[in-house]
């Protein structure tokens, strides 16, 4: 199991223990299925940023605490230099760099996301979460599917959408795609 995912899973389990909730109660409160929650807490399943965000918002804790084990401290501004954002690789195909991890009480969570290419026949992973999302492609091309509608985005293209709709993305042309994702509740 990847060390970063293992640490996130331990923080989620620690939160549940601190709240003195059963697995079933925690899953229900977070709006997740029991099996989905158990996979997340064990670190054996995919831990999407949106699932972490759902848990963080429900319990009114900063997303950074679950993702990185750190409490944000800045309230005026937070500077992230290119390539220095705190990163987590949820899977080998997705790398997230948090761009505002030190700013407390954020209204949005901006990430630099890198999606590695997969074989053509690999099915797309779909996600849903509360709120809205903005994506701006920085380099490469990606196929973005929203509620069954497929769109090809190239460098410079952006898309703003209702993130409660099933959405997924895939790198195209056998090359990684990098994009700015801003997730808002």
UniProtKB/TrEMBL annotation:
Residues spanning the signal sequence = none
PROSITE patterns found in the cross-reference section: HTH_CROC1 (PS50943)
InterPro entries from the xrefs? Cro/C1-type_HTH, Cupin_2, Lambda_DNA-bd_dom_sf, RmlC-like_jellyroll, RmlC_Cupin_sf, TransReg_Diox_bact_type
Q: Which UniProt keywords apply?
A: DNA-binding
Positions of the HTH cro/C1-type domain: 12-66
Q: Which Pfam families match?
A: Cupin_2, HTH_3
Highest taxon listed in the record's lineage: Bacteria
* Alphabetical list of PANTHER family matching this protein: BLL2473 PROTEIN (PTHR46797:SF19), HTH-TYPE TRANSCRIPTIONAL REGULATOR (PTHR46797)
The protein, known as: XRE family transcriptional regulator
């Amino acid at each position: 199991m990847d060390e970063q995912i293992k640490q996130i899973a331990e923080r989620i389990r620690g939160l549940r223990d601190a709240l003195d909730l059963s697995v079933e109660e925690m899953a229900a409160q977070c709006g997740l299925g029991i099996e989905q929650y158990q996979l997340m807490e064990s670190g054996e399943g995919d831990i999407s940023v949106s699932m972490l965000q759902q848990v963080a918002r429900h319990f009114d804790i900063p997303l950074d605490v679950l993702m990185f084990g750190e409490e944000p401290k800045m309230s005026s501004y937070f500077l992230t230099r290119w390539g220095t954002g705190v990163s987590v690789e949820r899977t080998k195909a997705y790398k997230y760099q948090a761009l505002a991890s030190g700013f407390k009480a954020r209204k949005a969570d901006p990430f630099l996301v890198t999606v590695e290419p997969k074989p053509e026949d690999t099915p797309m992973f779909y996600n849903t979460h509360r709120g809205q999302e903005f994506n701006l492609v920085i380099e490469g091309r990606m196929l973005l599917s929203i509620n069954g509608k497929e769109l090809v985005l190239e460098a410079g293209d952006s898309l703003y959408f209702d993130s409660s709709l099933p959405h997924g993305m895939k790198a195209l042309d056998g090359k990684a795609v990098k994009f700015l994702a801003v997730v808002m509740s």
